[in-house]
Amino acid sequence: MNHQLESVKLSEDKKSVVIIDQTRLPNDLVYLTISTARELYEAIFELKVRGAPAIGICAAYGIYCLARQIKASSYDEFYREFRRLVEYIESSRPTAVNLSWALRRMEGVVLRNREKEIPEILELLEEESRLIHQEDIAMCRSISEYGLTLIKEGDGVLTHCNAGPLATSRYGTALGPIILGKERGLEFRVFVDETRPLLQGSRLTAFELNRAGVDVTLICDNMASMVMKNGWIQACFVGCDRVAANGDVANKIGTSGLAILAWYYNIPFYVLGPTSSIDLDCKTGSDIKIELRAPEEIKEKYFSRPVAPREVKCYNPAFDVTDHSLITAIVTEKGICRPPYTESLAALFK
Ligand code: MRU
After folding, report:
1. CB-CB contact of 325 with 257 (8 Å)
2. pLDDT for the residue 77
3. Ligand 1 atom, smallest distance to 161 CA
4. Of the candidates 114, 140, 166, which is a domain's last residue?
């Protein structure tokens, strides 16, 4: 049985994007139909669709649907409006490079075909958005295969946030090797950080692995060092939102702390992600813009009553940067990159 849910797709009539509302999981499996720019912006900003690759796929389908609604009598008019929409959607979340990567690819189609009629450009945009989706499926599958070579049956794997099928297209990145391994009859013990404050670990990763029949144990984020010390973890697998040219990795807040713990306990720390998450224009992690989110996510969200005084200040960065020196390898669809990352990552694009 295929237990993997399709997090993003284009509707049959090609007028809207259909997503699983990830904010409603694990309690309700609800599909949302997105047809306007505002709905698309909000779905990304509010993390109804989330996970770097899924955001990219959703943005590609979304901008295609929005392009179909543009009323323009010339190419220039069409492009002006298309560009305005791209900028608006791109401003929804800054850290995951897949958002701008996918929008750039879609914009490239418009720019390369300026001599064509608008209906033809729309056809090409549809093709490109479907290609971005199909490529992600292939990339995740390949990452899963490479990742599977790094662990052996019975290993304990610690993961953070959610980098599974919901965050991508199929299999996921960090969860891909485990789900693929399970399909092949291999058993792993997976420890999942709940991932405060938005609980992607408990709400999404535990949900996905449980559906897949994987042995999953949920822990609070502050229990990671304990399970490592107990000797229960043989590898850490995490995803990424943006990888800098030197191998510094932006991923869900808490990832960097986990990497420091893994280093202390001598546990390999693997980052798994598609090449679409690598941004060679960012030389190091300090060039990566980190999204800051509302204090309410810490003080109120998912609690029936506030858990902190209303007037207390909060610092709520959605991501942190893990130093490349703490990363054992970066697993991409094109192979496993080892230090020095400045060389191994650059080689992927040659
Ligand atoms: O804020 P989120 O939930 O979008 O953050 C997601 C992550 O940090 C994931 O690890 C990353 O996007 C990789 S998903 C394959």
Report:
1. no
2. 98
3. 10
4. 140
